């Protein structure tokens, strides 16, 4: 810290400079229109006109965009700029689907939950190769989005956010509610409650994701002929009783000792407690011996 203190004022100055409007008179892509859009997620200080901002984000639908109002930068979304999330053609519109809004093959308000927030996009389905309405949820999967429902999905979770939630819940013990609230704060830190509540969808989808991850890691992903038998997805626990390893073969005849033995084996995972208990027993035995 002492090394940083002399630099503190300069750090603050640079952080404030980064928020200062880097206004460019013309769009830095087409060099024709006035530039009034910037992106907080891109690692550039580019300013774009609206159509060029959309084109530059064909493969980055989860970036945070702002527009210059003349006095300050205000949040705006790619949806507001006319962005369409196209499925099946690497961001390009499907040649067999010319729909512009509504209907079974175009969704005007599709919610996608990502690790950087909650996004609402127009979504155009792909109609190639005799695509059916029943298979629409699979199109989302091909785009790394887990559908919240199989039938007519209107919400999806990116694989990225599901992996984030899995690690957060394991390592940080984050609850689903807290995790979802965090995403709301990312999306709108002034009014996080104004965002749609997909907490129950997150819960359901994260259970499916965990189940699929377990199957994949247990080696069942490629073996479509065989499904996991009872206990085959369980993680091996070396502290659990194993015959002739940490449990004597005649344990059934040792019923009286079994209870103590079982407790002792359970404590095996808590080495510190075991050590403390051992020290206490030694200390009390010694005290007893000394006092007699
Ligand atoms: Zn432009
Ligand atoms: Zn961007
Ligand atoms: Zn197509």
Automatic annotation (TrEMBL):
Pfam families: CxC2. Residues 78-189 form the CxC2-like cysteine cluster KDZ transposase-associated domain. InterPro entries: CxC2_KDZ-assoc. It comes from the Eukaryota. This is CxC2-like cysteine cluster KDZ transposase-associated domain-containing protein. It comes from Scleroderma citrinum Foug A.
